[in-house]
Amino acid sequence: MSERIIIKGGRQLKGEVSIGGAKNAVLKLMAAALLLDDICEIHNVPELSDVQTMIEVINHLGVKTEYKPSEKSLIINAKHITNYEACYELVSKMRASFIVLGALLGRCKEARVALPGGCAIGERRIDLHIKGLEALGAQVKIEGGYVVAKATKLVGAEIHLDRPSVGATENLMLAAVLAEGSSIINNAAQEPEIVDLANFLNSIGADISGAGTSEIVINGVKQKDLHSTVYTTVPDRIEAGTYIAAIVATRGHAIVRNVFPNHLSSVLSKLTEMGATTTIIDPFSIEVNCVNRTRAADMVTQPYPGFPTDLQSPFMSIMAVSKGISIVTESIYENRFRHVGELRRMGADIQQEGNHAIIKGVKFLTGTQVKASDLRAGAALIVASLCANGTCEIENLHHIDRGYEILEHKLSMLGANITRVVDDVSGVDAHIQSNSPISQSYEV
Ligand code: UD1
What we know:
- 51% of the residues are buried.
- The protein contains 14 helices and 25 strands.
- Helix content is 30%, strand content 26%.
- With 444 residues, it is α+β, with helices and mostly antiparallel strands.
- It has two domains: 2-20 and 235-432, Alpha-beta prism (UDP-n-acetylglucosamine1-carboxyvinyl-transferase, Chain), CATH 3.65.10; 23-223, Enolpyruvate transferase domain (UDP-n-acetylglucosamine1-carboxyvinyl-transferase, Chain), CATH 3.65.10.
- The protein has helices spanning 23-32, 49-60, 88-93, 100-108, 127-135, 166-176, 192-203, 237-249, 265-274, 312-320, 339-345, 375-387, 397-401, 407-413, and strands at 2-8, 14-18, 39-43, 64-68, 73-77, 85-86, 110-114, 139-143, 146-150, 158-160, 182-186, 207-209, 215-219, 229-232, 253-257, 277-282, 285-289, 299-300, 325-329, 349-353, 356-360, 369-371, 391-395, 417-423, 430-432.
């Protein structure tokens, strides 16, 4: 079976779209649930293949889960952890599963987690995770492609991160919750997903302050102090930013609901600079309106609250059709320009020089066949196709399905002409597929 999305571009997006729960927060909450010798319930869990993969990872550890798609709720029962290993097959499928390292070490004082390796967008080292865990008293070895970590006990420590890594901050927070004494993470990542993780951990009885600033303090608590919770995760700011980009690129006028507008400050201010109008109409809704062709703008990706690297590619699609020359500097990942070649195939005029892309806006892009090379590169192709002349066929949808829930449905509701087709093995016939990445549910 091969799947494609077909978009007939050129329709202005209009109406309303509702944003789901933040993938990058939920995955970490699922790991955090491993600390708890009890049941917890997470709400606003999006139905995504990455969530399914994380369910498999924690099921493999002996944890029971039950996902209810109709309620977007996930019940996790981590009373019994029977295995300390996250195998290569699962970690290589989704590198975010590496986050179970800190939680397993905290709860079981032992973990064996496959090294995630690099990925399409960069080398993605884990040195800061390891140094931090060692500072907390763990012995960490790399053996046969696995990170093997053990500790007789973890003891709070002051840790300075050389860079504000999101994953390292999260792994260290998880390991420090049940450590003896206090830990301080300096130069911590400040992303909203870090705040969400701290809020979840505090809701199960942890003692964490400072999340959302560069200094996070974790006062260790005892396992018996942790307790069950029902918790709702934050909206997905990257999904929201992608829909906002699509509305602007098509010169549409629509409302994006169920968002936290302050999580998107850098994004909204960039759009104002480019000539689009964004209005916060209530605490959870942004009205987006773009009447004229957008203006070029320069952009540098940075850790939060800077412009998010995950929205660099969909914004490049807007710049591809903006008036003037834009310069994009990617400062987080060394190889996050894989959408450039595909946008060029659609008629974009983009020159890449190291970590800079120089985009000379053209009047219009033209539909053609393109391939997503990773999740956010796929998002860029969706945005570009929506505003292109003619028909675009986007392949490698497994990347896009990792992070965008019922994408075709949401875009159709905004007026896009979009269909997912599944070719049968002979390639003769094609049909529309219902897309439900979380196919299994498990009893708690
Ligand atoms: C998370 C997000 C990802 C987002 C990124 C930056 C998830 C599942 N993914 O990824 O979508 O693009 O934050 O906002 O939440 N680094 C090191 N050593 C380390 C750790 C990181 O050198 O020990 C480098 C990485 O190679 C990368 C940069 O730091 O170049 C940022 O990585 P990090 O902030 O850790 O991102 P992730 O947590 O992997």
